Amino acid sequence: MTGALSDSPAVPPLHRSVRDEWIDANGHLSEAYYVLVFGEATEHAMAHVGMAPAYRTETGCSLFTVEAHLRYLDQVLPGERLEVRTMVIGVDAKRLLLWHEMAAGGRLRATAEVLGVHVDIPSGRSRPFPDGVRAAAEARLRPVPPAAGRVGRR
After folding, report:
1. What is the three-class DSSP state of 122?
2. Total-model pTM
3. Direct distance between the N- and C-terminal alpha carbons of the chain, in angstroms, rounded to an integer
4. Residue 53 to residues 40, 43, 50, 71, 150: CA-CA distances in angstroms?
5. Which residue, 45, 46, 70, 117, is most buried by CB atoms nearer than 10 A?
6. d(CA 96, CA 137)
7. What distance in Å separates the CA atoms of residue 25 and residue 137, rounded to the nearest whole number?
8. Closest CA to 3 of 106, 140, 151
9. Residue 22 to residues 12, 32, 102, 112, 153: CA-CA distances in angstroms?
């Protein structure tokens, strides 16, 4: 099962080359490295809504992933160049919902729906986003893709 890439990412794409050590015994990208690349894409998105690495130092806050759903749609092979497109598909006072699409060679290979909670690191407790961060996330909101909706249900 594959799908088309979304038309309007809210964050500039992240590009990574598949490294030889990421390849498993089956000759394709190992599961752990999908998670690694999607984690980097989450940090990339955080930077584009005002939570770059300096934000953590200055505020003592960060985004903690509390739930994720991955779909493996097609193999990623050695030496391929990955592009991850990210959309903000939900935001409220303390939560950010991201949709990542991983492609290689123009084909969708995997998706990740990631729910993050804004946390005050010293206390370990959730805390509302600063107004500027929330506004930046809201400005990047895109419609929820049809394949999304598995994360954040109660």
Report:
1. coil
2. 0.91
3. 28
4. 12, 9, 9, 28, 29
5. 45
6. 8
7. 40
8. 106
9. 24, 8, 15, 18, 32
Q: Give whole-number Cα distances, 150 to 66, 111, 144, in Å.
A: 13, 12, 11
Per-residue pLDDT tens for 80-104? Answer: 999 999 999 999 999 999 999 999 9
Q: What amino acid is encoded at 77 in this protein?
A: L
For residue 142, the SS3 value is coil
**CB-based contact 38:112 (threshold 8 Å):** yes
Which candidate, 73, 75, 69, 94, places its Cα nearest to that of 148? 69
Q: Which one, of 99, 100, 103, lies nearest residue 83 by Cα?
A: 103
Exposure b/e, 57-90, CB count within 10 A at least 16 = b: eeeebbbebeebebbebbebeeebebbbbbbbbb
Please choose, from the candidates 126, 116, 81, 120, the residue with its C-alpha nearest in 3D space to the C-alpha of residue 95.
Answer: 116
Closest CA to 26 of 69, 59, 75, 74: 75
